[in-house]
């Protein structure tokens, strides 16, 4: 089936990975099992709101909103690199009309496309005319697309009615502090009410506006995701409080993202030596707030002009100068794809249930990494993987714990040895890596680093394979308890 | 009495165009320029020139 998905997608390679169980992450592999039916209905095809959906559905961002109304210490608006994958970076700005043209072109070629988002590169609501004009055009041309936007929240409260009018039912607010004392170390200034505010005043106004915006969105029945940038030494100890506050106010999902910091980006944090968290530190903070607002762990911190499934970016293929004049979207192709996905989802769940019954019991949880191009299967060659999906498996449950990137931002020219070293570092704590194929040399190097390479489950479903692998290992060690 | 935009520093975001009370700012070749005939440095409108207050790159919107 996964072959059909890829061929349906034409040139599209489909990355993705694994699923979450119970309250492990956001979304649910089983569907509506851990959320009300009406919410599942809203998120089930939204890759950013449902971990399960991100294996099958694509999103695109259109960069119609270049202006911003605040300055963040992790952002530098002058920097752009086509290889750079982080929020705030784009290669071309679009007018709303150009954005529609681009969305039509992507929809015509990528049947997975379910979501159109506006995430900058500045702030969607600091450019309200362009943002809403774009939604208006796209909603008329492609009514099946879900619309969403991302904002810092400063100009949110006054736009909630408009957001509702345009049927935008997903909004992301970036909130990295709920205490202005902490916020002042993240936001040097804001532009509000026709003046620039700095220091504690800026952080306080931003905080108050964010809370008001969040409350109004929730009251309007709009699903709200909160993004928080984890900045070691600044807000790491504060993250549980953020989680508590946003959950109490009705946020649906909380996405704790690592600070991306590099002097080459020219950001204040990059230049002042503020480091980002390690994958282990990020996971520790995510674990510590588990049980609050549902956590998102599959975020790829994509660009404001990203196109495709999470973890891939087809943006360059859909640059304006490469788009044909009159792209035509064929609803039939989309319908066929939707049917394939329904069947795949059901088969994947069946396979997992069977594997759980066969595993024979439970025991020590092990961490496995998976190389996947999407579709919920182990279908990627180790050497092609730019990221790995991490699962914790204990014989009865498979919990999605995050994504580890194996490439490096915007450096290029890596030697083979260097990149393998980087991958081994990225896989710290992992017992095995499940791949479709791998060369003998990296297999050997990984084994020396204590990571078993498993290619016995090539093209099988991820969760079922992880459970089967766990059962095999534990049976050999005689460590399964019924 | 007018402001200007230092072209080499302009990111082209257009935040200034949106805030300018005099419609003195327009896009040209991907960056923004101020028409000095229309710019009043926001006198009579606001306490400080709006373009300089909102610009993400310090030292870009400056007195001409």
From TrEMBL, chain B:
Keyword Ribosomal protein found: no
PROSITE patterns membership: 4FE4S_FER_1, 4FE4S_FER_2
Keyword list, A-Z: 4Fe-4S, Electron transport, Iron, Iron-sulfur, Metal-binding, Transport
Gene Ontology MF, one: metal ion binding
Taxonomy, superkingdom: Bacteria
Name under which the protein is recorded: Ferredoxin
Cofactor(s), names only, from the UniProt record: [4Fe-4S] cluster
Domain 4Fe-4S ferredoxin-type: 1-30
């Amino acid at each position: 089936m996964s072959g059909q998905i890829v061929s349906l997608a034409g040139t599209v390679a489909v990355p993705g990975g694994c699923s979450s169980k119970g309250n492990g992450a956001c979304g649910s592999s089983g569907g509506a099992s851990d959320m009300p039916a009406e919410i599942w209905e809203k998120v089930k095809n939204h890759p950013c709101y449902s971990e399960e959906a991100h294996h099958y559905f694509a999103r695109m961002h259109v960069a119609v909103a270049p202006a911003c109304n605040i300055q963040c210490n992790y952002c530098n608006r002058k920097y752009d690199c086509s290889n750079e994958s982080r929020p705030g970076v784009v290669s071309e700005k679009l007018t709303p009309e150009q954005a529609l043209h681009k969305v039509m072109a992507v929809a015509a070629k990528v049947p997975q496309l379910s979501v159109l988002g506006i995430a900058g590169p500045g702030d969607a609501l600091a450019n309200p005319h362009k943002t809403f004009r774009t939604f208006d055009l796209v909603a008329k041309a492609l009514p099946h697309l879900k619309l969403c936007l991302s904002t810092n929240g400063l100009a949110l409260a006054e736009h909630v009615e408009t957001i509702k009018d345009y049927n935008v039912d997903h909004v992301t607010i970036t909130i990295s502090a709920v205490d202005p004392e902490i916020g002042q170390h993240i936001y040097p200034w804001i532009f509000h009410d026709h003046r620039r505010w700095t220091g504690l005043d800026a952080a306080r106004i931003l905080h108050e506006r964010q809370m008001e915006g969040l409350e109004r969105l929730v009251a309007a029945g709009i699903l709200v995701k909160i993004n928080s940038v984890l900045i070691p030494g600044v807000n790491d100890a504060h993250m549980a409080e953020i989680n508590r506050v946003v959950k109490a106010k009705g946020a649906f999902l909380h996405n704790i993202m690592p600070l991306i910091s590099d002097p080459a980006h020219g950001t204040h944090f990059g230049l002042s030596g503020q480091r980002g968290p390690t994958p282990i530190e990020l996971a520790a903070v995510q674990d510590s707030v588990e049980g609050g607002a549902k956590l998102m762990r599959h975020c790829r911190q994509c660009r404001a002009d990203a196109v495709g499934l999470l973890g891939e970016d087809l943006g360059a293929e859909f640059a304006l100068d490469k788009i044909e004049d009159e792209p035509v979207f064929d609803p039939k192709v989309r319908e066929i794809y939707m049917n394939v996905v329904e069947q795949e989802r059901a088969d994947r769940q069946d396979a997992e249930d069977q594997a759980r019954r066969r595993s024979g019991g439970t025991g020590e949880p092990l961490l496995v990494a998976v190389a996947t191009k999407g579709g919920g299967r182990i279908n990627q060659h180790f050497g092609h993987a730019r990221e790995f999906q991490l699962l914790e498996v204990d014989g009865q449950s498979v919990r999605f714990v995050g994504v580890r990137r194996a490439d490096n931002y915007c450096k290029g020219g890596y030697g083979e040895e260097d990149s393998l070293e980087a991958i081994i570092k990225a896989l710290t704590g992992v017992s095995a890596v499940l791949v479709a194929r791998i060369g003998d040399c990296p297999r050997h190097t990984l084994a020396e680093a204590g990571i078993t390479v498993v290619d016995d489950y090539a093209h099988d479903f991820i969760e079922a394979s992880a459970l089967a692998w766990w059962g095999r290992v534990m049976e050999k060690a005689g460590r399964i308890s019924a | 009495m007018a402001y200007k935009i230092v072209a080499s520093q302009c990111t082209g975001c257009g935040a200034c165009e949106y805030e300018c009370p005099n419609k003195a700012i327009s896009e040209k070749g991907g960056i923004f320029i101020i028409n000095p005939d229309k710019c009043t440095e926001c006198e009579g409108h606001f306490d400080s020139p709006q373009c300089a207050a909102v610009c993400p790159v310090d030292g870009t919107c400056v007195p001409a």
